[in-house]
């Protein structure tokens, strides 16, 4: 099932994400070289604290309304001409508890920002509830280029999506036939939800600073399905539109066998002209399925175009979108549903879906715009961002699907990527450029223990057990270590267009023993560090670098540091503090022993295990990196690899 | 001083059943709340890091107003009523009289802090009828009042509770909220005497006792804390003075350079639609409204919810800090003030 399965509902509107940006440059975590200018907004020639240093990490919906519902018989209703009471209703965040947060698991992994404590409500103009639920923690995926204007008004052109589930679902009293059907269809009173976003503003233009557009699609969920990615099939854009940029890069789709329809989400991928989702594209797109007659599966990246002959595919139908304004995305969310003939349905069982456009140079032929992966595989990790303490194990589910069905006994290989330098720094020149070194990640290689291979079960799932081992401070001034774990299906044809940049991202905490009698010296380095990188705290709430100030707010700090991690008031908001250090801080707050005069730097050096010296970038490592990046299609990825929320 | 309209005093004095008092406790809740936006506007006008002593004084008073509001909610629940917090009209219009206040009298606005605002508004709100003197009035006095102070209003409520309530109050004890304040200031109100004791706390924290500027916790009553800002010196014990105290302690400095020039009584509608300032002001109103919604839940049968509201208060504070730093579009030399406008439909 999933959000692509009908009955589904689309809402559209705006979202706020008050991203905190001092932590964008990992070097800002080094207390000894911290410069107060890192807390200032960026200047003309100096990045400083980038574009929102006092961000508070709040995430919320604004101005959203239910625009469309689609039913299993293929019919859809919109506000104009629709009859179901859910249409036109308001969609918002929580109304009587704190708003949710958006945050990264580690300063050296900022490409999959997570939603925490986010809830949504659908309600009427007189505040009657139709539906509410909490969104499971989910990191965004499928970053792709959207704006053909390059992000002129807003500062960046990317979009991305969060896939998740709605839990703790409350069904309101308002009588909506659509919601009744949805409730009966879904399992465990849990719903699938997809949030596609684009047009986020770094720039102070149009009154939309720190805001963007959002499309939310809610559909039924099946209990055997993953929670943070759609267990469906995917289309991959393979056409170079302009100098290495690919639009329509990732689109989820579902073949609904019972209804004999194909449902495609183009809301996350269709090119838009501007930050508000205006479409100026006039390309006629058609969905099709490759025919049995075509053995030559189009493969690889494509510049110039790949041409398909009429016999190579069976055309399913046109993608019906409107151009000239933002109405299509705003009212349909880019959700397309086309009927299938019996023949097409049969073909789709083991042939690739394609998106094509008729060629003008070669009449009668089609240009291949998007295609499914070779062999129809979709392999992804659920909950791919993990925080891990030493001595604990996390189980990360990885699912394999082929042609939309769970793939039993698929062999998947896992490996920690090689030690890699220079991730998530920033400016290197100028009088205010940070002087700390950017730590290597993925080292020491024995920081994690995990198997090299697993096979999936009949539900297509295998669970990767990752154990955190004891590490000191290989990143010197920054706690813990960031590990990127590649997962690669064995025995599956290489397909550079597919699988994107997915990996499993584990933030392993430094092993630390809570002292019996912690002093200010034990807690001040990490508190000072937090105060440095989160001026929203240190300037507006409490100067975390000052013992006296911290003690003056002792009670509220004890409260904040002892929340459940799912509580919106949990501190630190970024959830990047080890449990041992958190306990140490709480212990100290209860009995605040002063520090000795021993300099902090010396204490830190004593704690650090013999840190692995940064490796010389040997030929061998370079070769491995190149191979890894090529395998992941990252040569193209690199050009597009910007998190809209952290981009320079 | 806040002068309560005579009709409210009369209504309290004419109450013949406990449920007749419900509306008056609701008004007391509104009144205790109503000063908070005014004081918070002053607090939020202070630039980060500046005017620390002044900020601390205002903050300490706001905390106690929240205590008074909690006490009033507890009393209303104890009498068998129910507080109504998340409704339009709970927050008064600013500038204007406080709830129950006489319109021609003290007008309270949402303004940046200044010596004039401290003197006219903050001290005006908290001023007892006679600083350091408190006339004894009896219910059976024939003397006609044209107004009453908040202290007198509470005294009449107290006397009516004493007269009308059974020893054990009829409300559900499970609704009592008694966290985050010392137990001798916020406690479950189960018996009549609890209600009476609780009202005394409210009065003395605002106005002080008859012989000292201190309340039961030996802290300065609000009026005198604000006076410290106005006179620029701490109020300390002074044996050389007949009243035993004088403003002769450490300096309390209010530096105008450390205050954002807020446009007084900013409303959302004053700001250009679609501007960043409008969006920030809207988010502030939303955060405040969410908080009122959560307080309503807390004081209507889920007292444990109070811990969620703490985090929301910080959200309000941070929204406010962001807002007051913004220049007011089209009004040169001014920044945006917090609106405190209740938004029933939260987007």
Give a verbal description of the structure.
The complex is a heterodimer of chains A (648) and B (347). Chain A is an alpha+beta fold and 648 residues long. Chain A has three domains: 8-19 and 57-372, no CATH class; 377-512 and 621-640, Immunoglobulin-like, CATH 2.60.40.10; 520-607, no CATH class. Helices cover 15% and strands 29% of the residues of chain A. In chain A, strands 14, 15, 16, 17, 18, 19, 20, 21 and 22 form a nine-stranded antiparallel sheet that branches. Residues 133-143 of chain B have low confidence and may be disordered. Chain B has one domain (4-266): Ferritin, core subunit, four-helix bundle (Ferritin, Up-down Bundle). Chain B contains nine helices and four strands, in the order E-H-H-H-H-E-H-H-H-E-E-H-H. Chain B is mainly alpha-helical and 347 residues long. The radius of gyration of chain B is 20 Å and the shape is globular. In chain B, the strands form two sheets. In chain B, strands 1-2 form a two-stranded antiparallel sheet. A two-stranded antiparallel sheet of chain B has the order 3-4. In chain B, strand 3 and strand 4 (245-251) form a beta hairpin. At the A-B interface, strand 2 and helix 5 of A face helix 8 and helix 9 of B.
List keywords for this structure.
heterodimer, A: 648 residues, alpha+beta, Immunoglobulin-like, 3 domains, nine-stranded antiparallel β-sheet, eight-stranded antiparallel β-barrel, 11 helices, 15% helix, globular, disordered C terminus, B: 347 residues, mainly alpha, Ferritin, two-stranded antiparallel sheet, two-stranded antiparallel ribbon, 9 helices
Give a summary of the structure in a few sentences.
The complex is a heterodimer of chains A (648) and B (347). Chain A has 648 residues and is α+β, with helices and mostly antiparallel strands.
């Amino acid at each position: 099932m999933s959000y692509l399965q009908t009955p589904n509902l689309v809402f559209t509107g705006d979202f706020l994400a008050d991203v905190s940006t001092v932590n964008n440059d990992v070097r800002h975590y080094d207390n000894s070289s911290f410069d107060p200018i890192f807390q200032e907004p960026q200047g003309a020639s100096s990045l400083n604290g980038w574009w929102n240093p006092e961000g508070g990490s709040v995430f919320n919906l604004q101005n959203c309304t239910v625009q469309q519902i689609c039913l299993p018989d293929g019919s859809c209703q919109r506000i104009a001409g629709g009859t179901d009471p859910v249409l036109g209703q308001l969609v918002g965040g929580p109304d009587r508890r704190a708003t949710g947060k958006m945050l990264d698991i580690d300063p050296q992994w900022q490409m999959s920002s997570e939603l925490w404590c986010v809830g949504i409500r659908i309600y009427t103009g007189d505040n009657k509830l139709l539906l509410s639920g909490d969104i499971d923690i989910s990191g965004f995926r499928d970053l792709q280029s959207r704006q053909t204007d390059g992000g002129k008004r807003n500062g960046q052109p990317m979009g991305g999506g969060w896939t998740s589930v709605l839990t703790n679902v409350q069904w309101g009293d308002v009588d909506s036939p659509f919601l009744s059907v949805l409730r009966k269809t879904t399992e465990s009173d849990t719903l699938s939800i997809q949030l596609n976003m684009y047009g986020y503003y770094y720039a102070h233009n149009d009154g939309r600073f720190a805001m963007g557009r959002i499309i939310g699609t809610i559909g039924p969920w099946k209990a055997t399905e993953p929670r943070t990615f759609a267990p469906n099939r995917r289309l991959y854009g393979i056409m170079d539109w302009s100098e290495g940029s690919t639009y329509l890069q990732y689109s989820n789709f579902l073949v609904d066998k019972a209804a004999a329809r194909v449902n495609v989400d183009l809301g996350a991928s269709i090119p838009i002209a501007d930050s508000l989702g205006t479409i100026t594209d006039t390309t006629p797109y058609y969905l099709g399925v490759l025919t049995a007659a075509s053995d030559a599966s189009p493969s690889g990246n494509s510049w110039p175009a790949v041409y398909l002959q009429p016999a190579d595919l069976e055309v399913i139908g046109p993608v019906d979108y409107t151009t000239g304004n933002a109405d299509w995305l705003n009212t349909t969310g880019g959700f397309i549903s086309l009927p299938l003939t019996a023949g097409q349905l049969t073909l789709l069982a083991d042939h690739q879906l394609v998106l094509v456009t008729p060629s003008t140079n070669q009449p009668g032929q089609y240009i291949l715009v998007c295609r499914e992966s070779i062999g129809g595989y979709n392999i992804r990790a659920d909950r791919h961002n993990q925080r891990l303490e030493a001595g604990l194990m996390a189980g990360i589910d990885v699912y394999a699907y082929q042609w939309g069905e769970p793939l039993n006994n698929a062999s998947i290989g896992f490996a920690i990527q090689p030690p890699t330098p220079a991730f998530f720094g920033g400016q290197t020149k100028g009088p205010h450029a940070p002087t700390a070194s950017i730590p290597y990640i993925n080292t020491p290689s024995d920081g994690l223990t995990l198997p090299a291979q697993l096979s999936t079960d009949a539900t297509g799932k295998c669970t990767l057990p990752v154990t955190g081992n004891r590490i000191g401070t290989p990143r010197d001034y920054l706690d813990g270590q960031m590990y990127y774990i590649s997962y690669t299906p064995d025995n599956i044809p290489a397909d550079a267009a597919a699988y994107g940049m997915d990996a499993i991202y584990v933030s392993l905490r430094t092993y630390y023993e809570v002292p019996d009698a912690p002093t200010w010296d034990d807690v001040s380095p990490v508190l000072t560090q937090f105060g440095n990188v989160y001026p929203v705290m240190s300037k507006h709430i409490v100067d975390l670098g000052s013992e006296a100030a911290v003690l003056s707010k002792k009670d509220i700090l004890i409260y904040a540091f002892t929340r459940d991690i799912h509580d919106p008031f949990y501190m630190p908001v970024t959830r990047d503090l080890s449990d041992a250090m958190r306990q140490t801080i709480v212990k100290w707050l209860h009995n605040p022993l002063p520090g000795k005069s021993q300099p902090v730097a010396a204490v830190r050096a004593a704690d650090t295990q013999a840190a692995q010296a940064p490796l010389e970038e040997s030929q061998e490592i370079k070769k491995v990196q190149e191979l890894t990046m090529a395998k992941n299609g990252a040569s193209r990825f690199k050009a597009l690899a910007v998190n809209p929320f952290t981009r320079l | 001083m806040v002068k309560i309209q005579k009709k409210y005093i009369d209504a309290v004095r004419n109450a013949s059943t406990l449920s007749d008092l419900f509306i008056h406790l609701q008004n007391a809740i509104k009144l205790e709340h109503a000063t908070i936006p005014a004081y918070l506007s002053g607090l939020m006008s202070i630039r980060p890091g500046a005017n620390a002593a002044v900020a601390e004084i205002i903050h300490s008073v706001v905390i106690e107003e929240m205590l008074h509001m909690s006490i009033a909610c507890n009393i209303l629940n104890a009498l068998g009523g129910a507080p109504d917090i998340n409704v339009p009209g709970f927050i008064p219009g600013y500038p204007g009289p406080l709830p129950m206040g006489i319109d021609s009298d003290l007008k309270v606005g949402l303004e940046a802090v200044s010596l004039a605002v401290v003197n006219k508004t903050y001290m005006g709100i908290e001023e007892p009828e006679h600083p350091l003197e408190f006339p004894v009035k009896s219910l059976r006095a024939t003397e006609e009042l044209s107004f009453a102070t908040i202290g007198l209003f509470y005294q009449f409520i107290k006397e009516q509770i004493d007269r009308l309530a059974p020893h054990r109050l009829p409300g559900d004890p499970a609704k009592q909220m008694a966290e985050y304040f010392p137990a001798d200031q916020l406690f479950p109100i189960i018996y009549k005497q609890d209600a009476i004791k609780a009202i005394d706390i409210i009065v003395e924290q605002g106005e002080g006792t008859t012989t000292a500027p201190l309340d039961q916790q030996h802290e300065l009553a609000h009026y005198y804390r604000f006076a410290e800002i106005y006179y620029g010196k701490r109020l300390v014990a002074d044996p050389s003075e007949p009243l035993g105290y004088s403003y002769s302690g450490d300096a309390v400095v209010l530096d105008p350079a450390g205050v954002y020039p807020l446009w007084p009584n900013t409303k959302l509608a004053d700001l250009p639609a679609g501007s960043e300032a409008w969006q920030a002001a809207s988010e502030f109103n939303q955060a405040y409204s969410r908080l009122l919604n959560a307080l309503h839940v807390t004081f209507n049968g889920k007292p444990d919810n109070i811990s969620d509201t703490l985090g929301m208060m910080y959200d309000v504070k941070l929204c406010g800090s962001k807002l007051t730093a913004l220049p007011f579009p089209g009004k040169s030399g001014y920044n945006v003030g917090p609106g405190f406008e209740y938004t029933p439909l939260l987007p």
